[in-house]
Structures are given as C-alpha cells and as structure tokens.
Amino acid sequence: MAGKQQSEYAEILLSCIEEKYFKDEIALEHHSFARIISGEMKVIQADKTYTFGPGDTLLFPNNQLSTLIKNPKDGQPYKAIVIFFTPQRLKEFYTKNLIQFTIGNKHTIKKYKKNPLLESFFTSLIPYFDLESELPPQIVSIKIDEAITILRSIDPDIDSLLADFSELNKINISDFMEKNYMHNLTMEKFGYLTGRSLTTFKRDFKKAFNTTPQKWIIKKRLELAHYQLSEQKRKPIDVYLETGFENLSHFSFAFKKHFGYSPTEIQ
C-alpha cells in the first residue's frame, strides 16, 4: 500500500513534518530507500552523524540504531518519499533474479549521487499521494521491483545487503551499549538489537556494568553532554537532543542534580 506519514503499514509513504522539529529513535525492521524532497534530516549514530537535504537519496539498512531529527528549512516543511523493502518482497524479487554477492558492502547508510534513473523513479511516485484510495497492490509490487532494479544498476554491492536474510545474533552487550546509550529505546528494543530477551538483557547488563540499564544510561548521557558543553563549547539547546534527552528543562534538571551546577554555568 502507499500512504502518508500516518500509515504504519505502508510500503511506500510520504513523510511530512511541518513542526519546528521531529525527533525519533529508530532501529528500522526493514531496509528503507528514501528521497528527501525538502527540509533537513540529521541522522545520529554511534560512530557518525549524517545530514541530508533536498535532492539527497539514501538507503537506510535495517536494525541501524539511530536518532533522527527532521527539521523544516528555508520556509519548507520536511518532506521525504520512503520505500520499505520487506523480507517478503526481497525474497520474491531474488527468487526471480540471480544474486550477485560481493565483499564490498558495509551495513551503513548509503548516499547516492544524482542519476536519471533515480530522478525519474521518485518523480513518478509523487502523484500517487494525491489518490483518495489505496494504491493497487500490483502497482506497489511493480514500483518496489523497479526500485530494487535501479539500486542494482547503480550499486554493484547492493545484493550483499538486500539479499542477506540472516537473523540477529547475540552480541557483546558492553561494546553495543557504549556505542548506543544516547538513543532513546525501550529496554526490550535494546535487548532485541543485542540478540536477547528482556530478561536476559537485564541480567547480562547487570553482570557487565554492575548497575541497572536506566541508571547507567542517564549517567553516560550526562557525561557526554558535559564533554560537549565544556570541551566542544556547544550550547545546551544544541546538545540535549543529541545526547538522548527529550526536552531542555528535563536535561537541565538532571544535569544540575548530577553535577551540582546547571549547563549554562559551564559557559
């Protein structure tokens, strides 16, 4: 189905944010293929921060723990077309097409240069969002197959990502949490991404850090914020979202409670 932002089940959707900003913590279940139409999206991950703007085309691999901050810009709302590649769709595609595995693929965000195939494809999708009824399933299938075919023509390594149907395995909890504590996810989601049930996640976390996940995460976020304020000379308004806090007042309260002085006193 095709849909707009409010549809939770659409495989092709138009994301539109007209507010000051929209923040979300994600670890997408499916690979997503997106074109930014207007506005700006910042993607914060453990090892890198990306900024995307109008005309940018990207492929977002599944299970990438990220903070997304979407902003209107230059008087325009944030708008993006997003296509989700579900395992069912991908398996159907690769039963009809020979997989070309390579060793060059990495499980990271891919940004693609302008290409006539990409321009034509995303332009063809825009009129669908004016439909009052759902997009016919046959057209959805055609457009998703077209998207995969285009990616295969411009990215020789893409099959190694899209045709990888392996399951998440249990990973080192200490390494994972040290890289991803700034993301606001439920304990269940942290457990899933480390290959554990909630009970096993809490048990293994206690063994690794000798405290609860909630206490450890807050402490780490505050320490990161303190570093950015004191060493990088950033402002509290620019720090609180990226370090995992939902609003500035809560950040300021927690910061002063932990350190004994407010974020603004550092400067």
From TrEMBL:
First and last residue of the signal peptide: none
Alphabetically ordered keywords of this record: DNA-binding, Transcription, Transcription regulation
Domain HTH araC/xylS-type: 171-267
SUPFAM superfamilies recorded: Homeodomain-like (SSF46689), RmlC-like cupins (SSF51182)
Alphabetical list of InterPro entries matching this protein: ExsA-like_N (IPR054015), Homeodomain-like_sf (IPR009057), HTH_AraC (IPR018060), RmlC-like_jellyroll (IPR014710), RmlC_Cupin_sf (IPR011051)
Source taxon at top rank: Bacteria
Keyword Phosphoprotein: no
Key word Oxidoreductase present: no
Protein name as it appears in the record: AraC family transcriptional regulator
Species, as recorded: Chryseobacterium edaphi
Source lineage: Bacteria, Pseudomonadati, Bacteroidota, Flavobacteriia, Flavobacteriales
